[in-house]
Amino acid sequence: MKNQALNCDSPVFNQSMMSADSALDFLLKAALAPSKTEAVDLDDALGRILSEDINSSINVPGFDNSAMDGYTIALGNEHLNKTNLRFSIVDRIPAGSTGNELSEGCAARIFTGAPIPKGANTVIMQEECQLSEDGSQITIDRAINLNENIRPTGNDIVEGGVILQRGRQLQPQDISLAASVGVGGLRVFSKIKVGVFFTGDELVEPGKPLTPGKIYNSNRYALVALLKQVGCEVINLGNIEDKFASTCNALSELCGKCDLIMTTGGVSVGEEDHVKGAVESLGELNLWKIRMKPGKPLAFGKVGNTAFIGLPGNPVSSFVTFAIFALPFIKKMQGNSKHQSNAIQVQTNFDCKRAKPRREYARARLDYSTGSAQANLFPKQGSDVMSSIVWADGIIEIPENTTFEAGELLNYYPLSELTR
Ligand code: AMP
Ligand code: MG
Fold first, then answer.
1. What is d(CA 137, CA 131) in angstroms, rounded to the nearest whole number?
2. CATH for 42-60+156-189, options being 3.90.105.10, 1.10.10.10, 3.40.309.10, 3.40.50.1820
3. Whose atoms come closest to the Cα of 262: which ligand?
4. Ligand 1 midpoint to CA 193 (Å)
5. Ligand 1, atom 6, residue with closest C-alpha
């Protein structure tokens, strides 16, 4: 891979342009950690962010228990390294009950999860035991070892240890682990509220007829769905008349109710649009031109004390800038300790003969037919081609100012990393 950094020093590209990394750094520094928490039942904890470490007050398992359905035996020294041993069955211990102490040379029928009785020191699975005709004895052909098939106390969790850390987004397995130590509810950060509205004289709501020059408002549905998917409460004011006073009213209404306000469109330079002016008049606004493709313009600011992010209008730009910038910002505001998306390295099935001044977040799909993952690009990479994201399973990062041959290893973000 050849870095042709010289090109990017050209004033044409650098003039007031920001790198994607600097924009993300800036946003993450500005993201306020959440302050409010609430208690939730385990059944309502999925996807929520833990606001405190969870410790275990017990060992799991709480007692040595059988890993098999079989027979537990009290072996003495004389039984070790011998084959064809015979033991009398003196007890039966189903899971949930406790057995009596076993004397040396005796066995008890035992079931998976049942406690190992005092005196017993091994478990033999039932398939390896021959039961006598009257059912009173077992014979085992092979030599038996101590501690076979016993799950020791604390094998999974040791009392006092931290089992789940603050800032973790709760998955089904986490909720199960909490339940296994007897925790009945969890303290999580309260959901953040995101207020959204949309402007643009060309926009028509789906379901209504299109008139000449109009397009359907698709960003609205992407943004609301993305926000819901990442666990935000959404206050959606819908389409707002593109007038300064109406835009100010919408911003003021959301400002008191939300942690973040988001819009799409109307943030390009020179745009005839009232979002920029209204945000500036009620708070502060940074309009960034980011050295990336798609999605050059991005607005970040404040309305009163509420953060504001204005995504670009082109549907792919809006989606990609949400994924690259807004998602980590929102996750940090939610208290999620893993707010950055993880890339994996994959080989390209394409080359890049001419260095590009802007980093490209290209829509790609992985092909595993050759054994290792190879990234193919969607043929149309325009910022208006939403079908590219529907086709893709991820986004590949084509570095700026760089040429490479096919087979180059590049960062690839699965869409799952970029949308939740
Ligand atoms: P803008 O950023 O407002 O200059 O818009 C750039 C492009 O995105 C234009 O072609 C707009 O028509 C289109 N666009 C803006 N908002 C939306 C939207 N909500 N849904 C679909 N396309 C949009
Ligand atoms: Mg517009």
1. 6
2. 3.90.105.10
3. 1
4. 24
5. 313
SS3 66: strand
Collapsing DSSP to helix, strand or coil, 91 comes out as: strand
Please state, in angstroms and rounded to a whole number, the distance separating the CA atoms of residues 372 and 392: 18
CATH 2.170.190.11 domain span(s) along the chain: 65-151
Please provide the average confidence, as pLDDT, over all residues in the chain.
94
The answer to whether residue 9 scores a pLDDT higher than 80 is: no
Report the topology of domain 344-418.
Beta-clip (2.40.340)
Residue 267: predicted pLDDT: 85
Q: Give the mutation target among 210, 240, 273, 314 for probing the ligand 1 site: most ligand atoms within 8 A of CB.
A: 314
DSSP code string of 120-162: --EEEEGGG-EEPTTSSEEEE-S---TTTTEE-TTSSB-TT-E
Beta strands in 279-388 (DSSP E): 283-290, 292-293, 297-303, 306-311, 344-348, 359-367, 374-377
Asked whether the CA dihedral 71, 72, 78, 82 is positive or negative, the reply is: positive
pTM of the model: 0.93
Instruction: Please list, residue by residue across 234-253, b when 16 or more beta carbons sit within 10 angstroms of its beta carbon and e when fewer do.
Output: beebebbebeeebbbebbeb
Of 101, 138, 266, 279, the closest CA to residue 195 belongs to 279
pLDDT for residue 16: 64
- The pick from 203, 263, 321, 386 for probing ligand 1's pocket by mutation, whose C-beta has the most ligand atoms within 8 angstroms, reads 203
Rounded to the nearest whole angstrom, what is the distance from the C-alpha of residue 311 to the centroid of ligand 1? 10
Residue 270, pLDDT score: 65
Integer Cα distance of 347 and 409 in angstroms: 4
Ligand 1 atom closest to 266 (CA): 3
Considering only the top CATH level, what class is 11-36+190-322? alpha beta
Q: Ligand 1: residues whose CB is within 6 Å?
A: 198, 200, 202-203, 215, 217-220, 264-266, 268, 271, 312-315
pLDDT of 4 over the 70 cut? no
Atom of ligand 1 nearest to the CA of 312: 2
Q: At 264, is the pLDDT very low, low, confident or very high (cuts 50, 70, 90)?
A: very high
